[in-house]
UniProtKB/TrEMBL annotation:
Keyword Transferase: yes
Pfam families: Methyltr_RsmB-F (PF01189), NusB (PF01029)
Ranges for domain SAM-dependent MTase RsmB/NOP-type: 270-524
Name recorded for this polypeptide: Transcription antitermination factor NusB
Active site: 476 (nucleophile)
Assigned keywords, A-Z: Methyltransferase, RNA-binding, S-adenosyl-L-methionine, Transferase
Family per similarity comment: Belongs to the class I-like SAM-binding methyltransferase superfamily. RsmB/NOP family.
Organism: Desulfovibrio falkowii
Protein residues bound to S-adenosyl-L-methionine: 381, 408, 424
Domain of life: Bacteria
The keyword Nucleotide-binding appears for this protein: no
Signal sequence annotation: none
Length: 524
């Protein structure tokens, strides 16, 4: 049975929209792209130009005209299910003999229901079960409706047990998650509890030790903080910052939905839109719980212009305008706290010579630097889909559009560069899984490819760097092979380079995502 045909039997609501979006994620779309497709919010930037993805987007069942609440519920469910996927699947394996033998839409609707039972405290369990059973009946008939009912009732009978990490260590089903890899049952149980693939857990454990690995797993499982960057050059920037930096008063943070379009149209990056989606989900969750508003949450300052908000506390409006309107007016950008902090911690805001951003993407880091007065003089990227967003982004923010062109950093468009070079490298993204939960689905094999790409970029760009100038290397991953070792290797092969500064998010940092950066200087 074609799943698109069968899905037409479902009415559109938050849960069925989430089911459609998760099927698109199965097909290779990011969570953000899938949500945009289903909720009919075009992704202005960041959507891959990949034709396979485009065809899925075109064929996706859309849920137009959903209420704000349903759109927000859909967003929460998609991000929540992806963030907790391994745990949800494990639990389904406890209450069903062979869940992987079920049709994929059935597996997903059950996972959505398990997520509801485990994590959506204020949605009555009977409503979650009823809806899943009705969906199963509409799609597959009475037989699978009974299966859904039986499985979810069994899960309910487990009570609070699945909320305890210890529950996952001793279970017989735990071993099949090992896939031949090592790891004790206890560690494997924690990976399942925090929904981290064993290969990532093991990578962290061998690189950073048991305690740090656990902390990183826990952080990746938690809802991410949301962040924004106020445009230092905007006439209302200072006033806006003052208002947003104050403790959030009662009722200022509230659930809003349907913002994906606003975020992308206004030039937000893919990462930032993802963050925004997550933020929406956070707000909805908090609203369901009737908390997270008006309890005096104070955002954390990131440098002079950035602000990070605990889940559920980003306000909806400031100075009489919705934040979407400030975004459209170029007074702020969505940018993760880690991205802003990396630039500041590495001292790139103090660069005075012309900067070439060799992996500029949509220009998130370049525009931040320009707002802070750094002369960005060239932006290149290998992806047209990403780079094409840069001019609009600059114009919206009132910044000059720097010269920009499509270019592979390994085959650079210039033979020499008189200033500094920024390499915000493509990486495995293991530091940002809270915000980009679908990264969990990637296979470990892609790491080796990335490492070669990163090393080649660094080698080629280091050759171009002039004496006395700096090359900054940034990743959003926690993997020594992509971080410290990549830098060490470059230093080993280039005796004319010295390391000036190196920075990495602390493993126990309570909310900042995992970022790494190093600044290398050419002697002379
Ligand atoms: C982490 S993202 C950069 C994000 C961007 N700096 C920002 O702040 O919005 C990495 C970028 O590297 C680009 N990229 C991947 N391989 C590349 C290559 N060989 N040459 C140049 N850019 C590449 C990707 O298209 C992506 O935009």
């Amino acid at each position: 049975m074609s799943r698109n045909i069968s899905l037409r039997k479902l009415s559109c609501n938050g849960r069925t929209a989430a089911l459609r979006a998760l099927l698109l994620v199965d097909d290779g779309l990011s969570a953000q792209q899938a949500l945009a497709s289903v909720l009919d919010a075009p992704v202005a930037h960041g959507a891959s130009g990949n034709s396979r993805e485009k065809s899925h987007t075109a064929n996706a069942g859309r849920c137009q005209g959903l209420s704000a609440q349903d759109r927000a519920l859909c967003t929460e469910l998609v991000y929540g299910c992806l963030r907790t996927e391994l745990r949800l699947n494990f639990l389904l394996g406890r209450v069903l003999p062979r869940p992987q033998g079920l049709p994929r839409p059935m597996q997903i609707l059950l996972a959505l229901a398990v997520y509801g039972l485990l994590f959506q405290d204020k949605v009555p369990s009977h409503a979650v079960v009823y809806e899943a059973v009705e969906q199963a009946r509409a799609l597959f008939g009475q037989g699978l409706a009974r299966v859904a009912n039986g499985a979810l009732r069994s899960l309910q009978r487990m009570g609070e047990e699945p909320a305890q990490p210890s529950f996952y260590a001793g279970q017989s089903g735990v071993k099949k998650y090992r896939h031949g890899a090592g790891g004790t049952d206890s560690f494997l149980g924690k990976c399942i509890f925090y929904s981290i693939p064993l290969w990532i857990g093991e990578l962290w454990r061998s690189a950073y030790g048991d305690e740090a690995a656990l902390r990183l797993m826990q952080r990746s499982f938690e809802r991410p903080w949301a962040a924004l960057r106020i445009n230092a050059r905007h006439t209302d920037g200072a006033a806006l910052h003052a208002v947003l930096a104050a403790p959030q008063a009662e009722g200022r943070a509230s659930a809003i939905a349907g913002l994906s379009g606003a975020a992308t149209e206004s030039g937000a990056t893919e990462q930032d839109s993802l963050q925004y989606h997550t933020d929406i989900a956070d707000r909805v969750d908090k609203n369901e719980n009737n908390e997270g508003q008006g309890n005096g949450h104070k955002p954390v300052a990131i440098g002079q212009w950035g602000l990070a908000f605990a889940p559920g506390t980003m306000p909806r409006e400031a100075l009489g305008l919705d934040l979407r309107q400030w975004l459209a007016r170029g007074a702020l950008s969505w940018q993760s706290a880690g991205s802003q902090q990396a630039l500041l911690a590495l001292g790139l805001d103090r660069w005075h010579e012309p900067v070439w951003d060799a992996c500029a993407g949509h220009g998130g880091k370049s525009t931040a630097l320009m707002e802070w007065g750094v002369p960005v003089s060239l932006c290149t990227d290998r992806s047209f889909a990403r780079l094409r967003g840069l001019p609009t982004q600059c114009t919206t923010l009132g910044l000059p559009v720097p010269p920009h062109c499509l270019a592979d950093a390994i085959r650079p468009p210039v033979g020499q560069w008189p200033g500094h070079i920024l390499v915000d490298a493509p990486c495995s993204g293991l530091g940002v899984m809270g915000r980009r939960p679908d990264i969990r689905r990637r296979e470990p094999q892609h790491l080796a490819e990335l490492e070669v790409l990163q090393q080649n970029m660094l080698r080629v760009l280091a050759d171009i760097l002039q004496p006395g100038r700096e090359l900054a290397y940034i990743t959003c991953t926690l993997n020594p092979a992509e971080n410290e070792r990549a830098v060490d290797q470059l230093l080993e092969n280039n005796s004319d380079l010295t390391i000036e500064r190196q920075w990495q998010t602390g493993h126990s940092h309570p909310w900042l995502e995992g970022m790494f950066g190093a600044v290398l200087r050419k002697k002379g």
